[in-house]
């Protein structure tokens, strides 16, 4: 009874709308095809729906493709429905009226994958002019994934009504792609191809590669068509002959084992092919017996090296463009070559930016060591742990200050203060007693580094701690499709530049810098001029340690904050200072640049093994020091003690 009332209800609704064309009426004229669609015939239904221009058409098509359309068995009416157990929540296609019914008596439409792709292509025509920019973007993404000649007309028609600059540019790009591949006019296709010469995107190169797609083949003579390449079969004779065999243009090579088997199978009266068995003691005689059997057509013919050479000489191995027009493929090849040249230049620039970024990180890590080691001559193996302390200081600040921008502004000076104090304490308690005793200094600072690592593990644990960058440092600066650099790396580069300027100002323009240089060159003379060498050494070591702490905050934004993070930079820091020139700030800058660019270059040559890249880099530096032991920027003066 309920089903009868429901059928009457939907019948009254359909009758009330009969005066105007509705989607249900269109679907009923193709009820069988809608219920059981096929990829080859569903186009008729879609064309009628698209031609109607009804606003409910795209909604129905989406639900149809998502298998949310059900058909009532009694009336053949179609509904959009969602299933909840044995109950269906039904919605009328035209009026939108909703009701519920038992799923008994309804059949769910399940179009296959091919039909759903056809529906999706038709749906794109509606989405291209949808008021919602996100739906238009979705339609463009669909076209980019599955380009088809039928998409060109609706895409071009929608361009006139597009008011979003970004979407309009995207549509123009896709129109060029579609014309290049599917245009009917040769000149228009060539113009579209040539217009892509400045587009270095992966999509543009994919379109050109599709135009330049080839099919390999072999024939007795050069085939008709747009030939891309004629291959020399002698480059790989064995593979080339196999292609001839597969094409049916040459007999297969008979293996030695098959020859022996054939001879054994054709022994008659102590002979094979008329040759006595006693004479078959060499490969040459066995081949002769096999040829005799082949002449009688008992076995396949024997293929000799001369036969292979002759067959290869009389065959043509080629690649044939799937595009028939040579003018199109010539234009595509020239454009693709120009794009690949530009991509190569952009990749070189991107590699240089990566090298500059890595150099700034190494410089930031080594600039503090340039003071303690370069100016004071102290081999501080705990320098990396000061970097680690600075990074953990930033992490602790973020625990109390959730605003990442404010916490970063607080963490930078606080990290300097913490590590400055730690450096002063280390100098007063340990280093001051070990000046001019490099071996003892190395061992003592190495022990301190291990102790600091264990203290960090006890406080923060062994897991990496997050030092989160502000939102304005998220993402990357996209210069082109092939040139990009993260904002964090830009920030580290700026931070390294600021510290370079600050350190140069301190050493060249302040009293402290003058006293540091005086003490490093001649402590006795400096003391006679009223300078306290102990105080200057303490301040110098504290300054270098404080700069390492600030570097730790910057590096922590880029790398993982762990108790061992300093160990990852201590070796590079010492190499940076030594290669650049001990005692020179500009030398440290040059050393960081050399090591950063060298490491990135080696990694580019051997991207699958970064450990090997670091090994090669160290070997190069060892050789470099052999030829230039004073570094890139050699000091202009020496201490009096030397």
Short description:
With 642 residues, the chain is of the alpha+beta class.
User: Main β-sheet: number of strands, strand sense, barrel status?
Assistant: 5 strands, antiparallel
Q: Biggest sheet: strands side by side, in what order?
A: 4-3-2-1-5
Ends apart, CA distance between termini: 111 Å
Helix tally equals 26
Radius of gyration: 39 Å
Please give the domain count.
Answer: 4
Mean of the pLDDT scores? Answer: 83
Total strands: 12
Coarse morphology: extended
Question: Would you kindly provide a written description of the structure presented here, covering whatever features stand out?
Answer:
It is a single chain. The chain has 642 residues and is of the alpha+beta class. It folds into four domains: 2-117, no CATH class; 128-213; 215-321, no CATH class; 355-563, no CATH class. The protein contains 26 helices and twelve strands. The chain has helices at residues 2-16, 23-28, 31-35, 42-52, 56-65, 113-127, 133-145, 152-159, 165-182, 186-195, 202-211, 237-246, 256-265, 283-295, 305-313, 326-375, 383-400, 404-429, 438-460, 487-509, 511-521, 523-528, 533-556, 567-580, 585-605, 610-627, and strands spanning 69-72, 78-84, 87-91, 98-102, 106-108, 214-219, 227-231, 271-272, 275-276, 316-321, 476-478, 484-486. The protein has a five-stranded antiparallel beta sheet. It has a three-stranded antiparallel beta sheet with strand order 6-10-7, with helices on one face. Strands 8-9 form a two-stranded antiparallel ribbon. A hairpin with a 5-residue loop joins strand 1 (69-72) and strand 2. It is extended. The protein starts with a helix and ends in a 15-residue tail after the last helix.
């Amino acid at each position: 009874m309920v089903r009868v009332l429901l059928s009457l209800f939907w019948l009254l609704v359909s009758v009330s709308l009969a005066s105007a064309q509705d989607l249900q009426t269109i679907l009923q004229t193709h009820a069988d095809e809608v219920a059981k669609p096929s990829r080859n015939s569903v186009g008729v239904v879609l064309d009628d729906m698209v031609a109607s221009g009804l606003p409910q058409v795209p909604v129905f098509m989406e639900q149809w493709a998502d298998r949310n359309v059900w058909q009532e068995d009694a009336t053949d009416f179609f509904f959009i429905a969602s299933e909840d157990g044995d109950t269906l929540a039904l919605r009328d296609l035209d009026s939108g009226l909703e009701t519920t019914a038992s799923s008994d008596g309804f059949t769910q439409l399940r179009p296959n994958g091919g039909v759903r792709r056809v529906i999706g292509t038709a749906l794109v025509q509606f989405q291209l002019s949808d008021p919602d920019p996100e739906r238009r973007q979705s339609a463009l993404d669909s076209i980019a994934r599955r380009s088809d000649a039928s998409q060109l007309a609706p895409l071009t028609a929608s361009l006139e009504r597009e008011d979003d600059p970004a979407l309009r540019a995207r549509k123009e790009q896709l129109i060029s792609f579609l014309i290049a591949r599917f245009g009917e006019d040769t000149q228009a296709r060539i113009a579209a191809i040539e217009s892509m010469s400045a587009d270095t995107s992966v999509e543009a190169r994919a379109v050109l590669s599709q135009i330049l797609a080839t099919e390999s083949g072999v024939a007795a003579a050069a085939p008709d068509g747009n030939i891309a390449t004629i291959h020399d079969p002698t480059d790989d004779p064995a593979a080339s002959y196999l292609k001839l065999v597969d094409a049916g243009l040459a007999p297969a090579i008979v293996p030695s084992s098959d020859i022996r088997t054939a001879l054994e199978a054709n022994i008659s009266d102590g002979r094979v092919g008329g040759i006595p068995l006693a004479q078959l003691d060499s490969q040459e005689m066995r081949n002769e017996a096999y040829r005799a059997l082949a002449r009688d057509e008992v076995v396949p013919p024997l293929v000799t090296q001369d036969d292979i050479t002759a067959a290869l000489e009389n065959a043509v191995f080629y690649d044939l463009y799937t595009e028939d027009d040579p003018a199109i493929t010539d234009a595509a090849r020239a454009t693709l070559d120009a794009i690949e040249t530009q991509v190569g230049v952009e990749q070189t620039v991107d590699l240089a930016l990566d090298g500059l970024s890595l150099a700034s990180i190494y410089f930031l890590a080594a600039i503090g060591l340039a003071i303690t080691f370069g100016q004071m001559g102290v081999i501080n193996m705990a320098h990396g742990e000061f970097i680690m302390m600075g990074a953990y200081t930033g992490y602790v600040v973020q625990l109390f200050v959730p605003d990442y921008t404010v916490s970063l502004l607080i963490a930078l000076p606080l990290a300097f203060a913490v590590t400055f104090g730690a450096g002063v304490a280390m100098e007063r308690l340990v280093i001051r007693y070990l000046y001019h005793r490099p071996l003892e200094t190395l061992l003592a600072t190495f022990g301190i580094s291990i102790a600091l690592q264990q203290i960090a593990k006890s406080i923060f644990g062994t897991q990496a701690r997050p030092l989160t960058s502000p939102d304005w440092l998220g993402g990357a600066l996209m210069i082109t499709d092939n040139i990009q650099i993260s904002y964090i790396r830009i920030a580290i580069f700026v931070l390294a530049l600021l510290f370079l300027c600050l350190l140069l100002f301190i050493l060249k323009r302040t009293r402290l810098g003058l006293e540091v240089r005086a003490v490093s060159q001649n402590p006795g003379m400096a003391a006679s001029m009223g300078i306290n060498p102990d105080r200057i050494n303490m301040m110098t070591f504290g300054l270098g340690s404080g700069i390492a702490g600030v570097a730790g905050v910057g590096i922590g934004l880029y790398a993982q904050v762990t108790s061992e993070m300093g160990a990852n930079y201590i070796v590079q820091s010492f190499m940076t200072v030594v290669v650049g020139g001990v005692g020179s700030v500009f030398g440290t800058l040059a050393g960081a640049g050399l090591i950063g660019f060298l490491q990135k270059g080696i990694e580019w040559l051997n991207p699958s093994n970064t450990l090997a890249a670091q090994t090669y880099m160290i070997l190069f530096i060892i050789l470099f020091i052999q030829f230039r032991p004073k570094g890139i920027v050699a000091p202009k003066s020496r201490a009096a003690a030397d």
